[in-house]
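User: Modeling request: complex.
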Amino acid sequence: MPKFVHIFFLIFLFTLLNSTLIFSQNDAGRLSGNFQLEAQYYNPDSIIGAPPIAEKVLSNSFANIIYKKGNFTAGMRYESYRNTLLGYPEGFSNQSGITYRFAQFSSDQFDITVGNFFEQFGTGMILRSYENRPLGFDNALEGIRAKFRPTYGLEMTGLIGKNRLYFGLGQGIVRGFNIDANIGDIFKEVLPDDMVLKFGASAVSKYENPSSATLNLPGNVLATSARVNFIYDAFSLESEYAYKINDPTDFNNSTFNSGSGMFLQTTYVGEGYGVTLAAKRIDNMDMRSQRSSFLFETAMNFLPALTKVHTRRLPTLYPYATQNNGEFGLQADVFFVIPEDFPLGLGGLNGTTVNVNYSEIHGLDTSHTSEFTYESKFGVPVFSSEKLYFRDFNIDIETYLSKKVKINFGYIGITYDQGVIESPGKSVLHAYTVYGDLSYTLARNNTIRFEAQHMAVSHEDLSKTQPINGSWVMGLVEYSLAPSFFMSLWNEYNYGNKDVEMRQNYYGSQFIYVKESNRLTLGYSRQRAGILCVGGVCRFVPASNGFSLSVTGSF
Amino acid sequence: MKYLLLSLITMLTVTACDIIEPPYKKKIEVTPRDTSDTLSPLRNVLLEKFTGSVCTPCPPANDVAKEIHEIYPLVSIISYHAGKLAQPEPSQGYVYDFITNTGIELGVAFFKAPAPENIITPMGVIDRIGFDTLSKVRVGHKIWLTEIPKRFPIPSPVAIRIYPWYDPSTRTLTVSGQVHFLENGFKDYNVTLALVEDSIIKPQKQPDGSKIVDYLHKNVFRSNIPNNAWGTPVSTTDQPKGSKVTFTRNLQFAPDSDWVPKNLKVVGYVYRNFNTPTVSREVLQSTSKKVSIVP
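Assistant: Request completed. Predicted assembly structure:
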């Protein structure tokens, strides 16, 4: 970013602060913000592969400052990576500066933003700019965005910009248009009160210099989508179809095929139960505003993983990463409550909540028709192991045994094609986890929780897999004195590792202090290497050993 | 105004669409370069690529390097084995260790890797352009063929000649050479001589995870001459246009060395070793020459 932009924003901020102080008596607007510091001290630990870190201490930090007065909002975010925490994308390393700044005017009918902004069209299949700090993901757009609402229930959005690429911008220019119409709001009395019908359509085009020594690349790549959302009483249906013209890149192996995406989800929520069924099909829908990007750099869209996000520690070793080049997925999620008066005491004290979830993801059946094109069949043999990338059946049960005792236990069975999801050449593995935790309320706001997990892992082809981590067991104790103090201790033991030297304990502890909107976290952990995924977007997390400090606050 | 803005964006968006019909591949026409005059400022380009025996995406990158050599024979290529995917995996039959300390040191520096394991493969560095700008120094193999020709039109301020020969009786490699200054030059120019070996047949993991046991490894970096990652200064003083600096360097082969002399060549290159006013390691000129063997 040019220096003059920094100077301009510093002057702007200084002026704002001064004006706030001077005119605070005259409704000079509202200044708010938040900050976060994440730092870690690293010890080398050669057994688990934690490398020596020359700086010893690495840190990521940022602060947002937002000024709002009436219809006008302006803000900026300062970020600093000195040097970036281990595992974060290296492009952030040893950099700091203002990475996000914007000015926005917003009224009932009109909304215009200049500078940086986040935006999503529909489910995000052709455009979504967002940030996820734990992942190190931020593809904010920089440019101009206008929204117009000619009548209640109708909104049109147009934007032009470039995606953020660390402390700079991607090469491609992104242009987009979106329209959302809520029929019930536009045409009063047309629909019953308990019915909602929404239509939406989007078009996104990126331009990138099509220079290539070997291929005739498209300069302008257009993607379009259309969607319908319908809600009637307790039933809802969400659907979207997206299409993209040819866009050969490193990520899709330079195919000149067009891309398509379909998403369908239906939900019914009754008294004490709910059912969600979802399906999606993606074929060549990786979209980036810069062809030469790496990992998730300059991603233009978001293709959600149709799998449950597990929060238990051991199954997070094998999360599903969306395969943007092609996949077919199904998911069913059912929850119900066993009433408290159910026989055999199965309803617990206040009813027992049961959540059953099943998902499976298959690769598409494709065959090459030329060096640069392929055919893909629409359907896949579901409920089979053919090109099965991922399958997850899990059940979670939670109930109160008494006013003081709550239990939560369950089972997670995962089939995971490590060769597809992580790196080619590895084999399919099966991970079966059982877990249970018990919370005991010692006194008002004073709770202790115990948790145990066991994950049995088997590999289909041992000759293809290195390292063979095998099975794990884990225990955790957590004590909370709400609302200010939390403390936890845990240990994961990789007792099933094929390499005897790698049968290691991965232990840790954490102390959290919360005061109003500020939070201080101190911790120590010996962390195994693994994959961190949020919504199907993943990055590798290397092994580490050391103390960590986290401070967050807002004003 | 608001209608105009939205209409404009809509129009720009929906009309901006370039559907490509076959043929998808361009016909590459290479203009022959006159290389008869070795003191010509015509630039030869250096591609330093990082690879590994168990790196599944690396064979396609090696194919691109091979294509580059066929189209532009004057491009010098050095292939460093470094990073996690270059480490031998004896249990899977990848026993041979190609890794060198120089490869690791350069990889860590180019990619700002926190540790040798974090060196990315496959990845390339073209003439070390943008050394201090992380987003530019690394170049994915899919665009090597696009980026390399962009360097050709830029005249080089130096020319380099090298003459490598190997004496089997003493197991010593000697390289003599000259750096010619076609423009005023600086003392902060370094010259590096890299010994690379072709035609090494060792296993290589393929994109589908399978193993080719008799894979042909080309341009494999063995050592610098002398064994120093960053080379040595061309001169201790600034040099005027038209001057020439000569040099001679030796490398004694280790007794247990399995390098095959007839498959060896030396890549020589001169680069800016500037730290002020800006950091630069840009390669100014490069050349490669097969090693002659003393009868």
